[in-house]
Amino acid sequence: MGGVPAASGVIRYTTNGGASWATQTVSVANSFADVTASSSSIAWAVGGRGTAVRTTDGGAHWTGMSVGTTASLIGVAFVSPNGWIVGTDGTILHTTNGGTNWSPQSSGTTADLYAVAFVDASNGWAVGASSTILHTNNGGTTWGVQYSGTSPTFRGVAFPDVNHGWVAGSGGALWATTDGGVSWGMWASGTTNDLQSVAFPDANDGWAVGNAGTIIRYRALGPLGTPQNLVITASGDNAVLSWEPVSGSGISYNVYSDPSCDGAFSLIGSTTDTTYTDVSAEGTTFYRVSAVR
Fold first, then answer.
1. Among 69, 147, 186, 211, which residue has the fewest nearby CB atoms (within 10 Å)?
2. Is pLDDT at 224 greater than 90 in this prediction?
3. For residue 98, what pLDDT is reported?
4. pLDDT digit string (tens) for 129-177?
5. What Å distances lie between residue 31 and 54, 82, 84, CA to CA?
6. Three-state DSSP class for 107?
7. Which comes out higher in pLDDT, residue 144 or 288?
8. Which are the contacts of 36, defined by CB distance < 8 A and separation ≥ 6?
9. Which string of DSSP letters, residue by residue, matches 161-173?
């Protein structure tokens, strides 16, 4: 089951991967800001003025949860039965029993927090205004600042594992880390529209969505392997390379050369074929071919 928050008391959900969507109505006065599901039957949603609800029957019935705050709640994440909610003024709430009881955690910031993600019961991240990125490795008992500045505002965070993570936000901001947030790099998202959410099921595939119907996708273009049986033959002054194809769809090949024979390979071309002609070959040259998608 998947869901998206909508207008006051409205949640839209799908049971077929998004091919079609249905509407569920919940008796609350405030709009929902975020929703998360841990199974086809259990889900939570949060919203304005301390609104938090839970379903255990796939949305047929929703029950209000008392979370002890009137702050606007904007992001929710669960590694059941542990859950976390973030909101305005640095609010972080935590439950260890599926949402029956909640207690506050000290975030150490007054910045509005818009999204939270956990990969297990210990390791999590929360992001928000003023480029705030917070991290905990003990379930939120303590939170530390990984990054803080003035802009952009981060509204989405995703960590498919403890090392690889992405944050998205205002002005099309898209940052990534491969070391658990110790360092962050900026990526070109291709848009200046504000990005509101990001999702990565694994480190190689992900999506970000935002204003004006913006949807962008990331697919890793890293090496898939080394093609086998590389053969190099001379054709006049050229070197003709051929190799066996790597299985898979959307495969292309990068060709590298090392004319100095010192182990320093440089990219000389790419092809979707299983042959490549090096027209600049001279003398003894080493070659290497890698498959990419």
1. 186
2. no
3. 92
4. 999 999 999 999 999 999 998 889 999 999 999 999 999 999 999 999 9
5. 15, 24, 19
6. coil
7. 144
8. 43, 44, 45, 76, 77, 78
9. SSS-EEEEEGGG-
Residue 97 tokens read as 């029993």
| Residue 11: both structure tokens together | 């949640």
pLDDT score, position 225: 65
Q: Measured between alpha carbons, how far is 279 from 266 in angstroms, rounded to an integer?
A: 15
Domain ranges of the chain: 2-219, 223-292
Question: In terms of residues, how long is the chain?
Answer: 293
CA-to-CA distance for 11 and 90, rounded, in angstroms?
A: 25
Distance CA 31, CA 207 (A): 24
At residue 252 the predicted structure's pLDDT band, cuts being 50, 70 and 90, is confident
pTM: 0.75
Spell out the long-range contacts of 171-174 with Cβ–Cβ below 8 A and sequence spacing 24 or more: 172/210, 174/198, 174/208, 174/216
Question: What CATH code would you report for 2-219?
Answer: 2.120.10.80
CA dihedral 86, 87, 90, 96 (to 10 degrees): -30
